[in-house]
Amino acid sequence: MNRLALLDELAARIANLPHTHPLRVAVDGVDASGKTTLADELAHALTAYGRPVIRASIDGFHRPRADRYRHGADSPDSYYLDAFDYPAVRTALLLPLGPGGTRRYRRAIFDYRRDTPLASDEELAPADAILVMDGVFLLRPELSDCWDYRIFVDAPFEVTLARAVQRDVALFGSPAAVEARYQQRYIPAQRRYLQEVHPRERANAVVLNTEPSNSEMFIQHVHLP
Q1: What is the pTM of this model?
Q2: Which CATH number fits domain 3-222: 3.40.50.300, 3.40.50.1170, 3.40.50.720, 3.90.480.10?
Q3: How far, in Å, CA of 126 to CA of 108, rounded?
Q4: For residue range 15-25, what is the model confidence (pLDDT) as tens digits?
């Protein structure tokens, strides 16, 4: 299935879901799996169905640096347990858009680059809006009951690590530093997530994204909501 056909299939499935409140779509996956790119493309595809789209990322809900690194910058436990403010994701974004919610939401509360809270205003979601949110660990128990559709973007670690080495050199300083950080912090935390949460089994759709450069993507399996 080419990429455009896959995106249209996912958009059609989501846009045709019954709803009495804004739909909340998770685009989950490990670091460098391609989830942010897929979420951006899916958001664009959904606009063809005349639905307002809200884009958000778990990156807007980081905890302060002191909390994220309290066990050290290389600690996988800190990444898995301390990186994100899940209560804030629920109260600021997911619950207001859910059943009985006010539809008044904030799509981000923290600027992790500046390590400071964001003074963002509340927004009012149209009743037929669709939230498309990307991020790691989105299907863990703290958030799992808040999604109306769940996508897991799957790629093996050898593929995601190669992508990360190309993408994150400016952030970490060298290919060796990128690989060391991933091998010590990110990949062990993500292996724990895969083993404890089983996000592939929780997802409505699992998208295999090993070769995005050739515009081919595949839905491995689909669970109806």
Answers
A1: 0.94
A2: 3.40.50.300
A3: 18
A4: 999 999 999 99
